[in-house]
Design a protein that fits this description.
alpha+beta, DNA polymerase, domain 1, hpI Integrase, Chain A, 3 domains, four-stranded antiparallel beta sheet, three-stranded antiparallel beta sheet, 9 strands, 9% strand
Length: 417
């Protein structure tokens, strides 16, 4: 049964009114049509959704249809009962069900935490008490404004978190439709325009990369200097200025280098286990990442770092619990990264910018967006396309080729023209 240009219901031969509805988009659902009350052609038909083929077999759906028809015979009206129940649900009820029944089981724990935070801090306080079926685009716009106003009071424009709130709410409405918690087609978020975001893309220049390299070398050898708070009473016992240096763990410095040399995400490196490292083939086999299973191809420089790194436990980047029974991955790189940035005089660089820098060097070298996308583990070409503006070399070469041919055809340039 293939979709057509309009919704079609294929009815069952044995159970009257039971059928499979297929929409033009290909969505399928088990439905039951019936006439409530005394029945008869004078009573308008009603339709109730029983489930979908993805979660309910034809046999189970047919049994559900028989049970529903039995309730109709006894005077019940399933469609009206469901409509009344759906109309009484608050938006908070729908969002909670979305988080519990969908996000918690089908998304990563971090995603669940982010969605739950947005719901509790922004969506529920603004419009959570409203009936979900009555939420209109104006109410969603009110939520959007409330988020921005609240963030402005804290010195933040809040456009990013406002957009995130609308994304979570839209996902909840879409899921609520499939679950029968809100009317079909009811998603007021779609009518509200999102804010334009200026995504921060910071790329390290050659000079900045050199400064970063010098700072990393100093951090793992002689150590990075630090200042002493002169307001503290124990400052007299502090080491002399020439002795105030901190040598950082080779694992912490290796993590920063690997982030830059692989373009991997922070947690992909910090959570990396030795068992997922294949130095012979020069790859990392990540069992889980933001985009699922992922293979990271290692350069010779990255392989050299891993070969010379001491193996202290399960994780490549050893943390404070390395080698213990309850070993956990290192939680962050905040202290060494802050110190390295200070030494390199790079105040506005984030760890994630190392991933951007990896991509920018590759694109600037005309390696091509598909190759860069594979190295970064992008699942969609559009994600890599944002680096396209960096690839100026091929365009310059093309412009030079055309201009040279035109110039030659015109007999060369004349300085006295």
């Amino acid at each position: 049964m293939e979709p057509s240009d309009k919704s079609v219901i294929y009815f069952d031969e044995t159970v009257k009114g039971f059928g499979l509805k297929i929409t033009p988009s290909g969505a399928r659902s088990w439905v039951l049509e019936y006439r409530p009350g005394a029945g008869g052609r004078g009573v308008a038909k009603k339709r109730v959704k029983l489930g979908s083929p993805a979660t309910m077999s034809p046999e189970d759906a047919r049994e559900a249809a028989v049970r529903t028809l039995a309730r109709v015979t006894l005077g019940g009206d399933p469609a009206r009962a469901r409509s009344d129940e759906r109309a009484s649900l608050s938006l908070s009820d729908v969002v909670d069900s979305f988080l519990r029944d969908h996000v918690s089981s089908k998304r990563k724990p971090k995603t669940y935490e982010e969605y739950a935070m947005v719901a509790e801090k922004h969506i529920k306080p603004a419009i959570g008490s409203m009936r979900a079926s009555m939420v209109a685009p104006a109410d969603v716009a009110r939520l959007q404004s409330a988020v921005v106003r609240g963030k402005r009071r804290n010195g933040n424009e809040g456009k990013t978190i406002a957009n995130r709130s609308l994304a979570v709410l839209s996902a909840a409405f879409n899921w609520g439709q499939k679950a029968g918690l809100v009317p079909e087609g009811h998603n007021p978020v779609k009518a509200v325009e999102r804010f334009k975001e200026n995504k921060k893309e910071r790329f390290l220049t050659d000079a900045e990369l050199m400064a970063l390299g010098e700072a990393l070398h100093e951090a793992e050898t002689i150590g990075l200097s630090y200042e002493v708070d002169a307001t503290k009473t124990k400052v007299r016992n502090a080491p002399k200025a020439e002795n105030r240096r901190t040598v950082y763990s080779p694992h912490a410095i290796a993590a920063i280098r690997l982030l830059l040399l692989t373009g991997a995400r922070r947690r992909e490196i910090l959570d990396l286990r030795w068992k997922d490292v294949d130095l012979d083939r020069g790859v990392l086999f990540l069992p889980d990442s933001k985009t699922g299973k992922k293979t990271v191809v290692l350069s010779s420089a990255a392989i050299s770092i891993l070969e010379n790194l001491p193996r202290l436990g399960v994780y490549v980047i050893a943390g404070s619990t390395a080698g213990t029974k309850d070993e956990k991955p290192r939680s962050d790189l905040n202290k060494p990264w802050t110190a390295v940035l200070q030494r390199a005089a790079l105040s506005d660089v984030r760890l994630h910018d190392l991933r951007h820098s990896f991509a920018s060097v590759g694109v600037g070298g005309s390696l091509g967006l598909p190759i860069i996308g594979k190295l970064l583990g992008h699942t969609q070409a559009a994600t890599t396309a944002r680096y396209a503006h960096l690839d100026v070399d091929p365009l310059k070469k093309a412009a030079d080729t055309i201009a040279n041919k035109i110039t030659a055809a015109m007999g060369g340039t004349r300085s006295d023209a």
